Amino acid sequence: MYPQFSSRVKLFSIAMTSVALLSACQEAPPAAESAGMPPAQVSIQKVTRESIPITIKLPATLAGNKEVEIRARVPGIVASRNFEEGQKVIAGQSLFTLDLVPFTLEVEKAQAELNAAQASVKQAQRERDRLRKLKNERSASKRDFDNAASNYDIAVANLASAKVVLNEVKLDLEYAQVKSPVSGIIGRELVSEGSYVSGPEILLTQLTETDTMRVLFGFSEREQLQMRKDVDSGSLTLPVNNEFEAQLILQDGSRHNNVGKVNFSDVRVNRYTGTSEMQAKVNNPNGQLRPGQFVRVQLIGAVRNNAVLLPQRAVLDNGTGKFVYVATENEQGAMVALPAPVEVGEWVRVNDGNFWVIRSGLTDGQPVITEGIARIFFPGMPITIVNEGE
């Protein structure tokens, strides 16, 4: 019995000793502070303001400058297809040919009727002139002359009508050789040779003009409201009539050679997406850009006025927001690093460096730490300034 009691006493003593040691560890100051860590060597940059061009990056899709539905204006049998699918065609090139025999016959018939009308005009003219001479000699009545004059006028009218009919059937003959209205890339045929088409209601194929491309993108209502506020406050200047230059970034990260210009901004807001549609046009002479392609568009032309720029490495994120470290003198006269929350704006690139535009949170002349931030282990850590940037 006594040995059991002795064992319990030993176990109790060991447990109490462990608790005491754990408490002592929890109450100990941080190792960095207790060890007298030397000040971190840092570089600073004093807050200044300048006007800086900014770019607005948005996702976009491409569409042809003109996307044309090819239809036959007249009914008929498709006799031939005169293009290779997916190839470039030029304006005026025949894409489909309908059976031309019926249209040729109509032209010949109208031409014959025109010839007959011309002959009738000549006959009526001779009769009118003959009766005019007889009337002057009092050998024909005025009534006979008036009838001859009316017959001549009717013959002239019939001739004009015959000319219109001939022009109409010639136009139908032209329409039967379905021609491309613009130059561009032709799509797949939707009606094969030998098929009957009843007229414009039948779609034959589609054609896309690609020498110039439309860049379609949306600008969110929230971003537009913020930009209007910045313009009103004078912190942002936009190009005249919002005619931004448009630089395209392709899927592989390369830039398209030609820079376009924004030429349309819809006043309406899409109720499903909350964006306003905008459009730019970009020249595409080598056909590198294709309809339906996804790109990123950079809008160039806006200027951020009196902006504060800081290197991106100087701006940190603690999960609740962005902040920077500011070199501050404490009550003991030592320099320490204290965090300062900031509101960031655009991400810009200047002289091959990446910078944040700081919208608020800093005042002119404040020394912001830009180098040596990795050596700052806790807020209020002592620092030594070894370099002051411009």
UniProtKB/TrEMBL annotation:
Residues 212-299 form the Multidrug resistance protein MdtA-like beta-barrel domain. Keywords: Coiled coil, Signal. Belongs to the membrane fusion protein (MFP) (TC 8.A.1) family. InterPro entries: MdtA-like_b-barrel, MdtA-like_BSH, RND_pump_MFP. It is a lipid-anchor. Pfam families: Beta-barrel_RND, BSH_RND. It is found in: Cell inner membrane. The keyword Nucleus does not apply. The keyword Ribosomal protein does not apply. This is Efflux RND transporter periplasmic adaptor subunit. Residues 107-151 form a coiled coil. Residues 67-198 form the Multidrug resistance protein MdtA-like barrel-sandwich hybrid domain. It comes from Pseudoalteromonas aurantia. PANTHER family: ACRA/E-RELATED COMPONENT OF DRUG EFFLUX TRANSPORTER. Its main location: membrane. Residues 1-22 form the signal peptide. It comes from the Bacteria.
